[in-house]
Amino acid sequence: MKGRDEVVVGATILVFLVLMVASAFWLSESYLGQGGSLLPARFRTVGGLNVGSPVVLRGVRVGRVEEIRLAEGHWVETLLQIHPDVVLPAAPAIVAASASLFGEWQASIVDLQEIRGGDPNVLRELEAAAAVGDDAWPGATLPDIGQLTAQAGRIASDIAGFSSRIETAFDDEAVLNLQRSIREFHEVADQINEFTIDQTEVLGEVTESVRVTSGIVSDAASSFQRTMARIDSATVEGRLDTIITNTAEVSTDLRQSVADFRELIALINARQGSFERIIGSTDSVFSRLQDGQGTIGRLVGDSTLYVEASKAVAEFRELISDIRANPRKYFKFSVF
Predict the structure, then answer these.
(1) Is this structure's pTM higher than 0.85?
(2) Span 253-298, pLDDT tens digits
(3) Given this model, what pLDDT does residue 295 score?
(4) Rounded CA gap, 278 and 309, in Å?
(5) How far is 44 from 124, CA to CA, in rounded Å?
(6) What secondary structure does DSSP assign to 177-202, as a single string?
(7) For residues 234 and 240, is the Cβ–Cβ distance under 8 A?
(8) CA–CA separation, 175 and 198 (whole Å)
(9) Do 64 and 109 form a contact (C-beta atoms < 8 A)?
(10) Are strands 75-82 and 60-71 parallel, antiparallel or unpaired?
């Protein structure tokens, strides 16, 4: 009887153990006899992801995390065991995130082409992991619930502090100052309105001046156009060619005159010695005249000749007068 009881107890314990192992496999959603593929993934940090954490695709568990290890370049590499019958996306990537409020994490398989418009931080981590260039899937990690709660707490504290500061700042005096500022702003707005009206009138005058100036410019443009038309007409009729030809001839004559003048200068330079001798002789003659030397010098320096010449002219005039008055005194006429 005692041996029978021991067999029953042993069988009960064995069945209980079998049930526990079966329950464990069922809860972990493991496939007995199916290993699946081991695929690497790269993260900067894995957060709360552990070995044995589930790998899900669109919310369905398709594998588990088999290994987590540190890699070069401050990266963390994981090996993911994926069931062989799972159809993966064209550009797979891994996003590690918290799965519940109890600290459980999971690795979600996503398509890079489908999350281009998502969280920019996640996209930045995935692009950095993909830039390494090997066969490992790029991975990113979302903040867990605790971090988000702590961040929300800090934000709530900041909002409370800001609200208290606003409540402290907006007392009765602050309200009066605000009302005064609003009235002053209204006065400034009225002044700006008046200034705008005045400037509008000034702008109208400036516009009128611009219009008049535009008319003047238009007239000048018309005059210039007529001038260009005349130039064009002169060009067509050959007048411009004639002017250019005459200008060329004048230039030729001018060059010839310059050449002749240069020849004259050269001749003067060649006769410079003769001119110097002539100038020296002339200077000597004028010096002798000034000193009263020679006949001409004496005549120039002595007034006797002038006096005698004046007397002779006077006597000659008296003689002419006497001849006119008494011609017979000087002339005799006889016919026979």
Answers:
(1) no
(2) 888 888 888 887 887 777 777 767 777 777 776 677 666 666 666 6
(3) 65
(4) 33
(5) 11
(6) HHHHHHHHHHHHHHHHHHHHHHHHHH
(7) yes
(8) 35
(9) no
(10) antiparallel
